[in-house]
Amino acid sequence: MNHAAPGPLADLKVVEICTTIAGPACARLFADFGADVIKIEPAQGDGVRQMGKHVGDISLYAATILRGKQSIALDLKSEEGLAIAKELIKGADILVENNRPGVMERLGLGYEVLSADNPGLVMVRISGYGQDGPYADRPGYGAICEAVGGVRHMTGDPDRPPARVALATTDYLTAVYAAFGAMMCIHERKRSGRGQVIDAALYETAFSQMEPYVPAFQQLGFVPKRVGPNLPTMAPNSLYPTADGEWMLIAANSDIIYERLVRLMGQPELLTDPRFATIRARGQADNMKAIDGIIGAWSSKFHSLELERMLVGQSIPAARIYSIADIYEDPHFAARHMLVDVPHPDLGPVKQAGIVPKLSRTPGAIRHTGPNIGADTERILRGLGLDEARIEELKRNGSVTTERR
Hints:
By secondary structure, the chain is an alpha/beta fold.
């Protein structure tokens, strides 16, 4: 962890009213790069605290996705809790929320209300289907929105039902889109002095990955299908077996790399075979199957580590399929600080994924692990000018909650 210098976003104040993944991940990006992030959560905490693996009752996921943030536990359905939230947002540059459309308005936290007191406020709104349109009221998690966005139709093997990646890929990509939108709005605010709303929809994030197929359907009526480990219309780019029962991903996407591969294989005749002589020819379904079979027969003669060294030694993009255990042993992850020890008050050092991206002059830093629910409630309230008697009153009536483990 690097505490030496403030991050590039150290002048920004962010309030987060989010649950589960996309919203907290977006606000975590701001925190990683120095923003002062206050997370408002209910007394029972963000649902992300119940997700992933736990050590006892301690959420390892919360320790990382909530890192660098402060936690204040408020009852937003109480008049006093809502008033505190509004006061915090009044002094914020960015508000991040990922409730279903209409929830913030029903709470009295719509943009028109908030921007009346804070005209420069940038409000990041993350939802399944966006703030308007016929599907706006639908509940939508990332996996559901992948189905609507066409991604799930493309995922898996052609002879099986659509598969899923057991990771929140659409949530994390939406978090990046949302953070990028917020930075554009902060930049524009320097000219206009005014904030605005970012409307980030999970299904649109998923759909954005379908970019090459949008014109292909309109012009050619082409509907892409699942192709398993292959890259559609591009070969060789697939998984190939090794002698030790592992798999090697080889991506010879250009003619130059393809030539390196077939020369390494000792089969230069594959350069002149009309089925494989060009990228376009290799991308034909039957030809793709044929070249993959030839490469698979060759790759299966070598153990995975030996094969990887051979391929990389010839500047051919290739890699074994890493597990998390492989990542922990890999020197590149260590050299790039992608496995970072972060102190935890109960668990000692806890490994977390490092900061992305790397900045040369003002890098991000993990300031502390994710806080317990309401860990910063009293300090934040004192910062708003409330005295101890008033804080105790708010605790008694349930408008606020202080740290509990």
